[in-house]
Amino acid sequence: MSTLQQEVGKRRTFAIISHPDAGKTTITEKVLLFGQALQKAGTVKGRGGSGQHAKSDWMEMEKERGISVTTSVMQFPYNDRLVNLLDTPGHEDFSEDTYRTLTAVDSCLMVIDAAKGVEDRTRKLMEVTRLRDTPIVTFMNKLDRDIRDPMEVMDEVESELNMMCAPITWPIGCGKEFKGVYHLHRDETILYQSGQGHTIQDLNVIKGLDNPELDQAIGDDLAEQLREELELVVGASNEFDLELFLQGELTPVYFGTALGNFGVDHMLDGLTEWAPAPQPRATDVRVVEASDEKFSGFVFKIQANMDPKHRDRIAFMRICSGKYSKGMKMRHVRIGKDVSISDAVTFMAGDRSHAEEAFPGDIIGLHNHGTIQIGDTFSQGEALKFTGIPNFAPEMFRRIRLKDPLKQKQLLKGLVQLSEEGAVQVFRPIDRNDLIVGAVGVLQFEVVVARLRTEYKVEAVYEPISVATARWVTCDDERKLDEFRRKAGVNLALDGGDSLTYIAPTMVNLNLTMERYPDIEFHKTREH
Ligand code: G4P
After folding, report:
1. Per the CB 3.0–4.6 Å rule, which of 37, 113, 243, 429 could disulfide with 22?
2. What is the pTM of this model?
3. How far is the CA of 308 from the centre of ligand 1 (A)?
4. Is 218 helix (H, G, I), strand (E, B) or coil?
5. Which of 16, 19, 21 best tests ligand 1's pocket when mutated (most atoms within 8 Å of CB)?
6. Ligand 1 atom 6: the closest Cα is on which residue?
7. Within 10 Å of residue 396's Cβ, how many Cβ atoms?
8. pLDDT digits (tens, 9 = 90+) for 56-73
9. ipTM tops 0.85
């Protein structure tokens, strides 16, 4: 096996999907604790009032709110693998970047608050993972609290997310009575000790379900109940099947408490063993295998002002094949230029350091002076373009207006550039002089106004506008498209890349329009 193949085989690149407050930040802390990236868990995010800010906090807005605006990337070793965890902005900082990050990973961890079950944001994010049939590992969190019937929550995952569940561990009690989990594959019970959340615990393990030690440890009644329950569970649920998991049709399910740092290691064991190594990626000309010798990668995110002192922009690139080494030449395919990259950065839990080399599945940061756009491909000379890094239809809209009307040109330029970075999307209605800004998360609106002020010297304000959603429209028949353009013109606009977009005032309007024009295709995503 070549070094490249070995490096590819070692890597696991994943992201966490969850609803706000389900425990993503806490689980990230524990995962890093296991990865020994942090000495002691608890420094990922500065929580309200604690005064301690995470290493990755860099922007003023971020400091004020104690949230992480960046999608930082964390690399750490676990077992004999090298794990890349891509953080997905989740609270007010939820944005299109969250969606796009999910197109740059090979698997996802879904964290569910077991007291609440499947929530809204999780549903949305799962929809995005469906675009690539990304394999999903599930962690049912907060077992130290009273939760819903675990069987019921798994049923909810199956029916609402359309994915089979295969429990790998099974909880013994919950809340104050939480005793631990039984590991179905290892045939052992791992006992929970409360109050040990900040350390890696010495495990108290009882081998075998019929072991009398189990009765001693958790009591006769609970032990008997567990045995009966497990018979039911095994009968009623699916067995783990690697193929189905890799196709995104079945998820292994783990139970635990992130706060108590219990069960996170079981999940990581499963994830690092079963989740796929860097996968082949489609381009417009061929499928690129991770083990292809020639380097290639694509940009899925651009981050402005990573370092407030340097006002630079960093383009986050997912490496798809070959090896990056410091100083190498890469072809920036869209503009057809060869560039020498000597200062790419890697990300270690918020710290930026210079990468000497990096492999498929890794994320590197390129310094960007405005030439790099979301979706750009870099290669070693070959003219190819990775597909599947789309724009997502915004979910919130505002009309943007200038305080000084003479600066319309600067405003448009700023908005188009910010839309190329993926910060926001801009729409220009075809029949009037108006500018509509669309975003996936509300914080983006503030970010855009702040950046327009500092980087483009324009003062802009928002006005409310009644828009429910946007869809990119295409049609194979030019004549029908023209007719649509004439008849539905009031609701049509061009986006930052001049693609035709239907701006729907209401969902009802959208549905009616789709019915009325069956030959027109309405898309929720747009490829760059
Ligand atoms: P998020 O990133 O998904 O939004 O969730 P986060 O980890 O910030 O967790 C949200 C809240 O849930 C936090 O409480 C956190 O401590 C708590 N939490 C996470 N995992 C568990 C768990 O296993 N058990 C219990 N009981 N709670 C858990 P908070 O009060 O909002 O923050 P904090 O002030 O306690 O840090």
Report:
1. 113
2. 0.90
3. 29
4. helix
5. 21
6. 23
7. 15
8. 333 444 444 433 434 478
9. yes
